[in-house]
Amino acid sequence: MPRTKKPAVTADQIVRALAAIAFEEPEAKPSERMKALELLGKHLGLWKDPPGEDGLAAEQSKLEELLQQRRERGTPS
Fold first, then answer.
1. Measured between alpha carbons, how far is 76 from 68 in angstroms, rounded to an integer?
2. Residues 55 and 39 both lie in one domain
3. 76 shares a domain with 54
4. Cβ atoms of 40 and 18 closer than 8 Å
5. C-beta of residue 21 within 8 angstroms of C-beta of residue 28
6. Mean pLDDT to the nearest integer, 51-70
């Protein structure tokens, strides 16, 4: 049966539900609390990497630096 209406869920409702899991529900497991806190932190922008410093770019930069050091020493890469 096809759906005719989308449920009316707002970002505020989701944030409130996550906050309830993280802080209010006594039966919530520690792993559920941690996941709720993680999602709330992401929503609030607490876990963002600095601009241009995502994991892959940082690792690539380190690798390029190591290769340059080897070239300067005359070590084959």
1. 11
2. no
3. yes
4. yes
5. yes
6. 73
The number of residues in the chain equals 77
Give the percent of the chain with pLDDT over 90.
36
pTM of the model: 0.55
For residue 53, the model assigns a pLDDT of 57
Number of domains in the chain: 2
Task: Render pLDDT for 4-33 as a digit per residue (tens, 0 to 9).
Answer: 777 788 889 999 999 999 999 999 999 999
In this structure, are 53 and 70 located in the same domain?
yes
- Nearest in space to 20 (alpha carbons), one of 41, 36, 42, 5: 36
**Distance between CA atoms of residues 17 and 42, nearest Å:** 15
Cα 18 to Cα 34: distance, rounded to the nearest angstrom = 10
Q: Which residues contact 55 (CB under 8 A, 6 or more apart)?
A: 49
